[in-house]
Amino acid sequence: MRDTRESRLLLVLLIAIAFALITVDIRGGEDSPVDGARQAAATVFGPIENGVSGAVDPIGNAVSAIRESGDRHDRLAELERENAALKAELGSDDRNHSRLRQLDRMLKIAGQGQYGIKGAQVIAIGAAQGFSWTITIDVGANDGIERDMTVLNGDGLVGRVTTVGPNTATVLLASDPDFTVGTRMEATDELGFASGQGDRPLRVELLNGKAEVEKGDRLVTFGSQADKPFVPGVPVGVVSRVDPSGGGLTRTLSVTPFVSFSKLDVVGVVVKAPEKDPRDTVLPEKSEPKPTPTVTVTVTPSAPADGQYQQEQ
């Protein structure tokens, strides 16, 4: 329709009629004279609205699903964080259980040897290549720690204290090449000196070049004058190799230490020496070797077949 004067007048008239109907409908309330017309319009246009709603609802549902998906994602992330925290807590519990086991073994050794010990935790380890084999523990002078005190754990001899600070101390490990401790053989009482060799077994020089030693024999610390730097009776290790005796004044042994120096965690500093030498009482009980089962196989010759027996006849 072209934009003419008549069309403009018609548009103004339609707008005026629409406003008049709206006014009458509002003032009429529930008795509005146009209520019937509204119901007729609803009957005509209702199916169209439902169709449009059906077309629009999937979009709305999709938006809602995205929002709920975001909520679920946040919940999953929260659950993952809770699971991670739980795993960390369980790991911490496992570590605490391990420390309790170490502490229990260490207290057992202290009780058997009558050592007065101060418990400590390893908080640092020194470089093992080109430097001394040392650890740092979280006790020091404020805890009664002094230089040249023996350090042990639940397995045996760890080392000796070399440097003491107010709240920490440095321990020279028995595996260090500069470390030397007097030793005594179990049962035979043969004396010697053990020296560290890094990650290799300890080297022990027995004072008696003709001493009878076998693989599997065990050694403990002999002790020092005034119990410094070593108290007596602390387990050192097990003989793993005996060098052939060459008629020398000493005899050389390779000794595998009881302590694993790469797995140190809980240790004890001996702050009070025993009143008497515990000798071999601190050594763990020897485990009896399990007998190797012997399997005997008996072969029973089978009887020849009938045909074979007749042929041989």
UniProtKB/TrEMBL annotation:
Q: Which InterPro entries match?
A: Cell/Rod_1, Cell/Rod_MreC_2, MreC, MreC_beta-barrel_core
Tell me the keywords, alphabetical order: Cell shape
Q: Where does the source fall among the domains of life?
A: Bacteria
- Specify residue ranges for compositional bias: Low complexity: 293-305
Biased segments, Basic and acidic residues type: 274-289
Any one biological process term the GO annotation gives: regulation of cell shape
Could you tell me which residue ranges the Rod shape-determining protein MreC beta-barrel core domain spans? 130-270
Q: What's a GO cellular component annotated to this UniProt protein?
A: plasma membrane
- For the region Disordered, what residue ranges are annotated? 274-313
Give the family from UniProt: Belongs to the MreC family.
Q: What role does it play? A: Involved in formation and maintenance of cell shape.
The name under which this protein is listed is Cell shape-determining protein MreC
Organism this protein belongs to: Streptomyces griseomycini
